[in-house]
């Protein structure tokens, strides 16, 4: 699926604030929460998202959702690009 098709699918599912983001290898996002559900679709590269209960390794084509209020951190293993979207 193309990035545009993925964005349209997220829109159909009620996601808002949809954007493409990129991070460099070694980027680290310390523990934090969001007041909304957040979903990521990996376009390229690799990343790990840790929550208190699980560790999710994302590669191209993978999707991860972090629920509103769920504490998480992220490590970028390779330069990456992903689609990020939010849902109240």
What topology does this entry show?
Elements: H1 3-12, E1 16-23, E2 28-32, E3 37-51, E4 55-58, E5 63-66, E6 72-87
Antiparallel strand pairs: 1-6, 2-6, 3-4, 3-5, 3-6
What does this structure look like?
The protein has 88 residues and is mainly beta. 11% of the residues lie in helices and 59% in strands. The chain is built from one helix and six strands; from the N terminus they run αββββββ. Strands 1, 2, 3, 4, 5 and 6 form a six-stranded antiparallel beta sheet that branches. The protein is globular.
Task: Give me the strand/helix succession.
Answer: HEEEEEE
CATH architecture: Sandwich
State the helicity in percent bands: 10-25%
Rg over C-alpha atoms, rounded to the nearest angstrom: 12 Å
Give the N-to-C terminal Cα separation: 25 Å
Level-1 CATH class name? Mainly Beta
Overall SS class: mainly beta
How does the major sheet shape up? 6 strands, antiparallel
Number of helices: 1
């Amino acid at each position: 699926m193309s990035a545009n098709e993925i964005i349209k699918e997220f829109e159909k599912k009620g996601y808002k604030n949809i954007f493409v983001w990129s991070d460099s290898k070694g980027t680290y996002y310390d523990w934090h929460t969001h007041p909304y559900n957040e979903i990521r679709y990996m376009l390229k590269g690799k990343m790990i998202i840790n929550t208190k209960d699980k560790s999710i390794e994302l590669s191209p084509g993978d999707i991860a959702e972090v629920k509103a209020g769920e504490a998480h951190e992220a490590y970028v293993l390779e330069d990456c690009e992903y689609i990020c979207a939010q849902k109240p």
